[in-house]
Design goal:
The chain has 599 residues and is an alpha/beta fold. Helix 11 packs across helix 16 (439-468) and helix 21 (531-545) runs antiparallel to helix 22 (558-566). The two termini are 36 Å apart.
């Protein structure tokens, strides 16, 4: 993994702007704690911060050869096959790194190299012959990449902070940006800040003297699925075995994240098979408790820990529980780090606990495999199986989780709802369809597409920022585009053939897992039920309401907020109230720290 940053300007000599280019690059220091590099030509500066994972000695960046120079973040999982193909064409390699394979692939195939890559990556490639820059992002958007066109070129970086560090860019947030801040439906290409964009997943952005152009090289398509259920289950298993084996390639210590759910347990068992029995390290998060033990709520029937231990024992992993207290979760240092890592308001304990879990993992491992995105791929969330949520207009997780802005000023909330309704209709219009597809199959294709192109990107961004804040590379095997394409086109009747959620994944991996996990109902990423945490959140919100100068005050429905504060702290029903409070507190912190112009 790594962090990249850079600047193209056709009207100035960037060799005289080394200090600014270095400042932009150093905002990526947490993403790449192992090394720093900067490559400058008169009209381009390419910066790189490295987290060394493959070819520790030989993979330094920026990397250049002949007319091309490259900065690259991520991993190309099929680099060994590509290397052999390139060698057959006469290419010679100086290193063992996947970075050099990507560079040589460009020299061989030009921009068409993107069609051949399997992995998670964001890259910037400068061609001296044409004085053009290519910005490329992987198909699912696992690795981030932002850019901001300027009068004479472009600024870019793995995170917004790289662009914000250049004096040419002024942070402003217009109406759409504010609506994006208040939602969990991430609009492709939208970066909150006015004039800043994300390279969309599966896209190539080309920067030249003529301006900036955008080309899509991959998208989900509708294809007829002819495999029966047993064949489909068998193919899912074959794909998963190949994907996990590829994603275990590493020259540094590796582990898996284990929640005791089907997704992470299946990956752990597959990794154990590929690496050899008893060699996998696993980590799980848990919370201290002051309220009498776990209480089932609307999202979670069971606590994770018993299932985590079942899997660790069944597979024979070297397991560690990372137990967090409310003091850990509310630590000002941790909260500040989370916000600075995201360049956006944090997500309360869901973000902070993930960051603290990753920080502990980084003391032992540099790479981790995660079960993220299996719910979006296989249909795991409860609202996939709730007829009311399926039938409702709008993003279905809002039916399951509630409105994101329940304590926001009512007029702003209505405008945000209208914005999200328009974004929902836009997404539905994009959905690829088969001729004659109708009824439940047509609707479930829409539901799956909404999750794979909107919700999953929100979650992948969170995973990326929290892991990169501690220099941990997190890989997401369920985002392999071959698996995503295949399962997207399986009928909903196949995806639920056993009458449950994630039927295909369960059928493909049940033989590897303890019976308790095979039977377990879907449970999302855990949230603390410790009452002292909610008291701390309420104290922060009370302080904001008492401060007439709090920057978030104009956006808060104070009556609704005070009513929420008067309600008793409730363990089983805390989720929606607490999330709404956390959102207000986080937005206030972000407005205080970043001070964007709101226009």
């Amino acid at each position: 993994m790594c962090g990249i940053a850079g600047w193209v300007d056709y009207d100035r000599d960037l060799t005289l702007e080394r200090d600014t280019a270095l400042t932009m690059t150093r905002t990526m220091a947490l993403r790449g704690p192992d090394a720093e590099g900067l490559w400058i030509d008169p009209h381009v500066a390419l910066g790189h911060r490295r987290l060394a994972v493959i070819d520790i000695e030989g993979g330094a960046q920026p990397m250049s050869e002949g007319p091309a120079a490259l900065v690259y973040s991520g991993e190309t999982y099929n680099f060994r096959e590509l290397r052999r193909e390139l060698e057959s064409h006469g290419h010679r390699f100086r290193t063992r790194s996947d970075t050099e394979v990507v560079l040589q692939a460009y020299l061989r195939w030009g921009a068409d190299l993107v069609e051949r890559l399997n992995g998670m990556y964001a890259l910037a490639l400068w061609d001296r012959r044409t004085e053009e820059l290519l910005l490329v992002r992987d198909r699912m958007g696992i690795k981030p990449l932002y850019y901001a066109p300027t009068r004479h070129g472009v600024l870019f970086g793995s995170e917004p902070k790289a662009i914000l560090a250049n004096p040419l860019f002024t942070p402003r947030v217009r109406g759409d940006g504010l609506f994006e801040l208040l939602s969990t439906a991430k609009t492709p290409g939208h970066a909150v800040f006015d004039g800043m964009y994300e390279v969309e997943p599966g896209h190539v952005v080309r920067v030249s003297r003529d301006g900036v152009t955008d080309r899509r090289y991959w998208a989900l398509t509708a294809r007829e699925h002819t495999d029966d259920v047993p064949t489909t289950v068998r193919h899912v298993r074959e794909l998963l075995e190949d994907i996990v084996e590829r994603q275990l390639i590493s020259d540094v210590p590796l582990c898996t994240l284990l929640s005791g759910g089907l997704d992470s347990s299946a990956l752990t068992a597959l990794a154990d098979r590929a690496l050899g029995t008893g060699t996998v390290r696993t980590f799980a998060v848990d919370f201290t408790d002051e309220g009498g033990g776990f209480v089932p709520d609307a999202m979670r029937d069971t606590a994770d820990t018993p299932y985590v231990h079942d899997v660790a024992k069944h597979v024979g992993t070297h397991h560690t529980d990372v137990v967090l207290s409310s003091d850990n979760l509310t630590s000002p240092e941790a909260v500040e780090t989370v916000m600075r890592a995201r360049d956006l308001p944090g997500g309360g304990d869901m973000d902070t606990s993930l960051y603290l879990l990753f920080a502990e993992i980084r003391r032992h491992s540099t790479v981790a495999l995660s079960g993220e995105s299996a719910d979006e791929v296989f249909g795991g969330y409860r609202w996939f199986h709730d007829p009311a949520a399926v039938a409702a207009e709008g993003f279905p997780w809002r039916h399951g989780l509630g409105r994101e802005q329940d304590l926001i000023d009512r007029d702003l909330g209505r405008r945000t709802d209208a914005y999200l309704a328009a974004r929902y209709r836009q997404t539905i219009d994009e959905v690829p369809r088969l001729p004659g597809e109708s009824g439940l199959e047509r609707r479930m294709r829409e539901i799956c597409y909404l999750h794979l192109t909107r919700m999953v990107r929100f979650l992948l961004d969170r995973k990326d920022r929290m892991s990169m804040a501690v220099g941990l590379e997190v890989r997401v095997p369920f985002c392999d585009h071959r698996l995503v394409e295949y399962v997207f086109n399986t009928p909903w009747s196949h995806k639920t053939y056993d009458g449950r959620e994630k039927s295909l994944l369960r059928g493909a991996t049940a033989d590897l897992l303890p019976e308790s996990v095979v039977r377990r109902r879907k449970s999302p990423y855990p949230a603390t039920q410790n009452p002292s945490y909610e008291r701390a959140v309420r104290d922060r919100l009370s302080g904001i309401l008492a401060d007439p100068n709090a920057p978030v005050r104009p956006y808060v429905d104070e009556d609704a907020a005070r009513t929420a504060l008067r309600r008793p702290i409730g363990r089983a029903s805390l989720q929606q109230d607490r999330m709404a409070m956390e959102r207000i507190v986080a937005l206030n912190d972000w407005l205080t720290a970043y001070r964007p112009e709101l226009v």
